[in-house]
Amino acid sequence: MAEPVLVSDDGAVRTIMLFRPEQRNSLDYATGHELLRHVTEAARARSVRAIVLGGTERAFCSGDDLDALERHLNGDDSLLPACRETGDAFYLRVCEEILAAGKPVIAAVSGVAVGPGTELACAADLRVGGPGTRLGCGLIRVGHSGIFAMLSRVVGADRATELYLTGRLVEAPEALRLGLLHRVAPDDEAVAATAAALAQELAEGPTRAIALFKELRERCEGVPARQALRLQNQFHRRCWAEVHDSVEGTRAVLQRRRPRFSGR
């Protein structure tokens, strides 16, 4: 049986790809478990300075596996994509790892992203799509609620509500306008390569400073502006004290040369 998640390294960039093309990269227990394991390992590996999360050309992730849902309705939860000890949905845990990862995470969103797939994409720091990319919720069609936590951070509560209530999928041009995508590759076959090139560029940057930015972003979430400004100043001082690249970057500007960032 083929592995449901494929992993490869290119220098300091690790690519983690859902690989269940016949099931449109839907999540069952084995797929969710492996995805969480690989994202967690990449997030904590010092040798990895950027992560690409992707799927196959027809689908990034189409949500929960239909066979797993059918079995659940018949009283068998063995295939549900959730931790058996805690009941946590695996996509939820993966989103937490992405948010906490001290390095940039790029979602290569080929084809469709629905439900948990949209949340995974929205948890990433940057999203690359193609002309055929479509993102949305779809839960209202099956009488469920959710897909708000990450989606609303990207498009706002009002637009997230509209996407939930209508159940519609957002196509690439609108996704670009809404911030659901940051870049659109010239064709769907180029999505993975475009995301990989962006990841390589970021991996050569001051990734320790990026880690502090991500921590600052999470700590400023929902915080009053004056408190957020104080937090920002603390992190600015932390950069000088903790980030070697902040000294290298400043010296490079003063010496009118390109910085040589080490990720420290």
UniProtKB/TrEMBL annotation:
InterPro entries in UniProt: ClpP/crotonase-like_dom_sf, Enoyl-CoA_hydra/iso, Enoyl-CoA_hydra_C
Isomerase found in the keyword field: yes
MF terms in GO: isomerase activity
Domain of life, source organism: Bacteria
CDD domains recorded: crotonase-like
Pfam families referenced in this protein's UniProt entry, alphabetically: ECH_1
Keyword Isomerase: yes
Keywords: Isomerase
PANTHER family reported in the protein's UniProt record: ENOYL-COA HYDRATASE, IP11341P-RELATED
Family note: Belongs to the enoyl-CoA hydratase/isomerase family.
Name of the protein described by the UniProt record: Enoyl-CoA hydratase/isomerase family protein
